[in-house]
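Reopening this one. Same input as before:
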Amino acid sequence: MYWPLLLFIPACFALNMAPGPNNLLAMNNGRNYGFNIAFLAGLGRIVAFVIMITLAASGLAAVLYASETLFFTIKMLGAVYLFWLAFKLWRSSELRIATAANSACNKELIKQEFMLAAGNPKAILIFTSFLPQFIDVNQDVRQQFVVLGSLFLLLEMVALSCYALFGIYLSQWFTRPKTASRFNKGCAVLLSLSGFNLLFSKS
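Same output, byte for byte:
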């Protein structure tokens, strides 16, 4: 499995670093709350991905993907949730830089990351189409899923950290309430575009 890993790691990290809704949310959380809380919130998506990897390893994810009705339902719910987050962010003019989030806020941020990841059916495609390309059917398939899945999660946490740190870097440019509000609106537009992309995507 040595040679497949050499191909898997850079390809996987490219997927992890793609500027999707979760990474955008991590960047915004980094700007608002700092690295520690943004990283903690990002564990919500990790939990969602663990569930998806487990489903993929057991073959249930393929069944889910094959069910057009269920797949479409998840896609619609994911798009609606993206629009809802975008709406809340658009209306937000708060300047929360260097403000520690409380326990209830932490739970809400974790929930947001989880819901975004769980509501994105494209993530299912990663675990049903991308990971299997590096699986050797002549060896223990489940063990390989564990190795590849663990690497994916590790690289996802690295990507999460990068976006959270980038959000902190951006915070110095958005220290005034007016510019902070513009930043929130910009993020809201990007989340809305992600929602439309999810809504009208064929896969």
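So the earlier flakiness isn't reproducible anymore. For the record, DSSP finds nine helices and no strands in the chain.
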